[in-house]
Design brief:
Largest sheet: 6 strands, parallel
CATH topology of one domain: Isoleucyl-tRNA Synthetase, Domain 1
Bound molecules: 5'-O-[(L-methionyl)-sulphamoyl]adenosine
Shape: elongated
Number of helices: 23
Structural class: alpha/beta
Distance between the termini: 53 Å
Strand content: 5-15%
Radius of gyration: 28 Å
Helix content: 40-55%
CATH superfamily of one domain: Isoleucyl-tRNA Synthetase, Domain 1
CATH architecture of one domain: Orthogonal Bundle
């Protein structure tokens, strides 16, 4: 039987990114988070499909191209490789990369429009209203009045000096749009959406976002303008050819176009059946309404099931402000990963920012976390253990008789094996709840305990005792190995093995977040590719590290960094 068909399917996505700029810390954050979950699900036995890509249409991109004096297609073709390069650098393991200018996507958008139209959810009308080009968002008069009141109460501007209204989300000037548009009857979905949220309490995570969306929908939904007629950088609508799709409607459809919705190819049709509905859409909290209101309504209008979950993460803030290029407070993923290593970079954002909440980030804090968790705890533990193995056992994982192991466990205890009991459940629960800091904390508990174990069991003293014992035995002409009671050398072997075995397990559990170093640790332990593991639970059975493996010392995995170096 084909093995993949027996594994449960797990489909996850990131938003598709605008190509008006290059990848930055915010887009890298969403992508690293999704990659970590994708890697975990693969290792935990799921038939995983991880999609990311680019949102290449719309007025914003058309304007960026115009400013650069190139065609929109030339512009997007120039930016796309930069995303691919950055994702490669950051070890992102997406299974597909969708671009909305691809034929497979365009055809699918046209089909969805036709379907929504056939089902009676599209009508034509004149639109007059304000639009934010950078956010590609329409605003209603009510939204702008609310914003003006809020801004006045906070003593902030809601209009530019020339009276142009400002965007309630990003504060940039709004543009007046007055044109013939197609409308989507979003208002018809208010009750259906509320019922869907009610029946699927985990659809919107975390809870704070769920409450926000529910109260937004309860306050009443207005029909949505879903096409534009004053520029043409978009998907042409088959039944209204002078209209191009509103860029958000076009973009959201990527989640199904990429996995074969509406394809003529039977293989693709099978793929869609297997993958949809998607397990989780990762998004930032700024785009929650598109994903939790408009998207499920569009799917319902086209007779397609909504996704299982939308998880909204918070913003990364530097000095309390949302980081963005225009504010000059953006550091690049390339620069930071050069200093802290790719794994150090990934680890910091996953461990130190509670996923779902806003997180203040700083270089100082990054240095602190890197040095404490990676250089001092995890990296140092590996160095000590590999050096010990080299010094006391010629770099070979010691072999111990099972009876001796049993006796020593009774005599000395095995706190590391005890922590590993039930660790899969605790770690997998945190991962499935998309709680990266929680999952990494579980591994850190083992790491801290392993460092303490080294201190308490003092292998250097055991080595001295073993030398004395051996000398004595040689003088007396006795065979130590024939004795029933464990020797000092057995104790040293037992302790060394336990530390190495704990390291094997930690590398396995750190692998989704820190792929490069985990792969390296497994290599140094003489083990196979850590990412070939697809039965995580079985691999967490204590004692799987084979005796006799050659252990390599290697360079420090995470060299300590000094303040001057960042
Ligand atoms: N193209 C749309 C998404 C369409 S999906 C059908 C878009 N693109 S984006 O490039 O502007 O942003 C993508 C993601 O990056 C969003 O989820 C956003 O929240 C995230 N981030 C951008 N800046 C951010 C921070 N400063 N912090 C954390 N993430 C933020 O929106």
């Amino acid at each position: 039987m084909d093995e993949t068909t027996t594994k449960p399917s797990y489909y996850l996505t990131t938003p598709i990114y605008y190509v008006n700029g290059v990848p930055h810390l915010g887009t890298a954050y969403t992508t690293i988070a999704a990659d970590t979950l994708a890697r975990f699900q693969r290792m935990d036995g799921k038939d995983t499909w991880f999609l990311t890509g680019l949102d290449e249409h719309g007025q914003k991109v058309a304007q960026a191209a115009e400013q650069a004096d190139v065609t929109p297609q030339q512009w997007v073709d120039g930016i796309a490789p930069k995303f691919l390069e950055t994702w490669k650098l950051l070890e992102i393991t997406n299974d597909d990369f969708i671009r909305t200018t691809e034929e497979r996507h365009i055809k699918c958008v046209q089909q969805i429009f036709t379907k929504m139209n056939d089902n009676g959810y599209i009508y034509q009308d004149n639109y007059k209203g304000l639009y934010c080009v950078p956010d590609e968002t329409f605003f209603t008069d009510e939204q702008l009045t609310d914003f003006a009141e809020k801004a006045a109460a906070e003593g902030k501007p809601h209009e530019a000096e020339d009276g142009t209204k400002l965007c309630p989300d990003c504060g940039r000037p709004l543009t007046l749009v007055e044109e013939e548009n197609l409308f989507f009857k979003l208002s018809a979905f208010q009750d259906k959406l509320l019922a869907y949220y009610e029946e699927n309490p985990d659809f919107i995570c975390p809870e704070i976002r769920r409450n926000e969306v529910v109260s937004f929908v309860k306050s009443g939904l207005k029909d949505l303008s879903v096409s534009r007629t004053t520029f043409d950088w978009g998907v042409h609508i088959p039944f209204a050819p002078n209209h191009v799709s509103y860029v958000w409607v076009d973009a959201l459809i990527n989640y199904i176009s990429a996995i074969g919705y509406g394809s003529d190819d039977p293989k693709q049709q099978e793929e869609f059946k297997k993958r949809w509905p998607c397990q989780v859409h990762f998004v930032g909290k700024d785009i929650i309404r598109f994903h939790c209101v408009i998207w499920p309504a569009m799917l319902m209008a086209a007779d397609i099931e909504p996704p299982r979950k939308v998880f909204a993460h918070g913003f990364l803030l530097t000095k309390g402000e949302k980081m963005s290029k225009s504010k000059g407070n953006a550091m690049s993923p390339e620069e930071l990963s050069r200093v802290f290593s790719v794994d150090g970079y990934r680890y910091y954002f996953l461990k130190d920012v509670q996923f779902g909440a806003d997180g203040s980030i700083s270089l100082e804090r990054m240095l602190q976390v890197y040095n404490a968790d990676l250089a001092n705890s995890w990296g140092n533990l590996c160095s000590r253990a590999f050096n010990m193995t080299n010094k006391y056992f010629d770099g070979i994982v010691p072999d111990i008789w099972p009876q001796t192991t049993a006796k020593l466990t009774a005599e000395m205890g095995n706190p590391l094996a005890e922590i590993v009991q039930g660790l899969h459940e605790r770690y997998a629960k945190a991962m499935n709840d998309i709680n990266y800091s929680g999952a990494l904390e579980e591994v850190m508990v083992l790491c801290d305990r392993a460092n303490l174990y080294v201190e308490k069991s003092a292998p250097w003293n055991l080595a001295k005792a073993a030398a004395v014992e051996a000398e004595q035995a040689a003088a007396d002409g006795t065979n130590l190995n024939a004795a029933d009671a464990p020797t000092a050398n057995d104790r040293l072997a037992f302790v060394t093995y336990n530390i190495l075995e704990a390291i094997r397990i930690m590398a396995l559990l750190y692998a989704p977040a820190m792929p490069i170093s985990s792969k390296e640790v497994w290599r140094r332990l003489g083990l196979g590719d850590v990412f070939a593991v697809d039965e995580l639970k079985d691999n967490l059975e204590w004692g799987a590290l084979p005796a006799g493996n050659k252990v390599e010392i290697g360079d420090p995995l995470f060299p300590r960094l000094k303040e001057e170096e960042i």
